[in-house]
Task: inverse folding
């Protein structure tokens, strides 16, 4: 037997102002996207913003449904829309933000496992690392690639 270890590397920022201009633009788009969330059951409004290599941004938000689990997370809403609208563009970053009662959550919300796997699929499709920004009011976590959020990505097909 051999013991192995997986390490996850990320950067933590205290303010959105500490991000690069491109990261800040993506993070602000994710925060803005929380306003279009439909979350009458959880009250947890999540927004996501996908940035393409040309700087264009596509936004999505979580959409709940009384027939749970028929709703969809913000990350998948944004990624699916981005891919459907621009199938040949390269996705280079995704930012995720969450709010409750109209206030940005202080710590970042992390994506569910299904969203992480979908993010991994689009990173694979794009052929370049997809930066992940998890945006909170007092902390922002930046991961250089989806693999850092989802070690041992399912890619066996």
Result:
């Amino acid at each position: 037997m051999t013991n192995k270890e997986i390490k996850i590397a990320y950067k933590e920022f205290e303010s959105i102002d500490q991000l690069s201009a491109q990261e800040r633009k993506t993070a602000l788009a994710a925060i803005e996207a929380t306003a279009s969330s439909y979350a009458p059951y959880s009250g947890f409004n999540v927004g996501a913003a996908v940035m393409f290599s040309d700087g264009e941004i596509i936004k999505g938000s979580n959409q709940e449904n009384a027939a749970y689990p028929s709703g969809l997370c913000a990350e998948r809403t944004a990624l699916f829309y981005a891919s459907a609208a621009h199938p040949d563009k390269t996705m280079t970053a995704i930012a995720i933000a969450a709010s409750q009662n109209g206030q940005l959550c202080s710590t970042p919300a992390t994506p569910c496992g299904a969203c992480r796997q979908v993010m991994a699929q689009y990173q694979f499709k794009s052929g370049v690392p997809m930066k992940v920004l998890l945006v909170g009011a007092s902390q922002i976590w930046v991961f250089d690639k989806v693999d850092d959020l989802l070690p041992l990505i399912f890619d066996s097909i």
Summary: The mean pLDDT is 95.
